[in-house]
Amino acid sequence: MLASEYNDFKKPLNKHSYEACLESIHQADYFILLIGARVGGWYDKSNRVSITQREYREAYDLCKNGSLKIITFVRQDIWNLRSDRLELRNHLDGLALEESEKDTIANHSSKRATDPQFVSDFITEVGRNQDTKNALIGKGDLPTGNWIHVISSFRDIADVLSTEIFNDLPIEEAISRQLLLGEIKQVLRKCLPKLSEGSVNSPTTTIRNLYAEHEIRKSAMDDGIITINIKRWDLLSTFSIHLLGLSLNPMILPQVLSSSIFLRFNTDFAVFEEQPIYRALQMLDEEIRLVTKGNTTETISIIFEHTPRSRISSDTEVHLDSIKFLALLHLLQRWSNVVELSCSVIRYLEGQEFKLPLLFERSPILEMNKVLEAESVTDAELHEFIYERC
Question: How far apart are CA 111 and CA 40, in angstroms?
Fold first, then answer.
């Protein structure tokens, strides 16, 4: 934001402040015009041109060639005052008075404005009323940048800016989104093995089919052995082979999470709030970390211990070390979550509504997820610990 009231505004010492302000407009993407009761300083007093009006005219020249957008706000009471003065002027025109007397009456100062005629004329200029009339009779083009937003509170301004600016993405945010989209597509591409010619596959369905056929209970850890259908195990092993050499090292994702791109400013509480997509990106980042951490030779070694060559042809089940199997299954679940989250994020970045996918829980053991959930501190418990304990 370029505002001369702030210390970070460039103030060239060899130029007048008015000139510096006019030059700064050429660096902006948007010109935000706020029209209130005061005229402010005069840029050209003899011709009744205020510095704000001069800045607007500079911005409008840029607006006409498409290099800048103008967003204008007028206070509700000033808008009403203008309407009242226009009605008053129409009434005075019907009276037998000198023009100077009509001007004096119509422009008398009030608590709402010290120079109501100037403010009214400025609003008319910004609305480009005469330019519009000329265009309608074939004299020139229809003007641009002539929308006027009448406001009663700061919230009205925030709503307009949210629609006009933040939905029309700033260039830095647009670039970050595009880079993130490309990176997540690359992550997804690495995570999708081709098990046959032209067939792209995800581990998700295979893992869910495993759970449909086998309930992985805590008792299996006590027994030390888990028994799995051979066909299901072989398919799971085939997927697991593709974890060898899988390397996921996103660079853009951590940068996006440390920025405000997917945070929304709550004007009621003056705080930034996480959007659902931000939470999904946090989850994706964590799942990628867990895949990277868990994808070791030791974790995958179990698939080489139970290959078709290690069993006899009549076997219909394979008996696996429970600790090794659960470590592999945990890794596969994290891999699946990376795939599902990546798909949802990509769809969102390409313009679709964000929907959080169905994900695997933290533990491959069904009962353990309830235990882990009970051990996790909830938002309500955290709030109570911070604010309500003695």
Answer: 16
Strands (E), 222-326: 225-229, 263-266, 271-274, 317-321
Alpha helices by DSSP H, listed for 192-274, are: 203-213, 219-223, 230-241, 252-257
Q: Please give the full DSSP string across 23-43, using - where no structure is assigned.
A: HHGGG-SEEEEEE-S---SEE
pLDDT digits (tens, 9 = 90+) for 105-114: 767 766 667 7
Place of tokens 């990376």: 338
Question: Can you tell me the distance from the alpha carbon of 337 to that of 283, in angstroms, rounded to the nearest whole number?
Answer: 9
CA atoms within 13 Å, Cβ hemisphere of 289: 9
**184 with 283: CB under 8 angstroms?**
no
Which residue, among 141, 148, 9, 131, has the nearest Cα to 78 in the 3D structure?
Answer: 148
Q: pLDDT (tens digit, 9 = 90+) per residue, 47-99?
A: 999 998 999 999 999 888 888 889 999 998 888 888 887 787 777 787 877 77
DSSP H or E run through 194: strand 194-196
CA distances from 335 to 191, 238, 387 (A): 7, 14, 38
For 353, the token pair is: 């509504």
**Close Cβ partners of 390 (under 8 Å, ≥ 6 residues apart):** none
CB 52 within 8 A of CB 40: yes
Which class for 158: exposed (0-12), middle (13-18), buried (19 or more C-beta within 10 A)?
A: middle
**Do residues 70 and 31 touch, judged by C-beta distance below 8 A?**
yes
Instruction: Give the residue extent of every domain in the chain.
Output: 17-166, 171-387
The gap between the terminal CA atoms of the chain, to the nearest Å, is: 44
> Can you name the residues that pair with 151 across neighbouring β-strands?
75
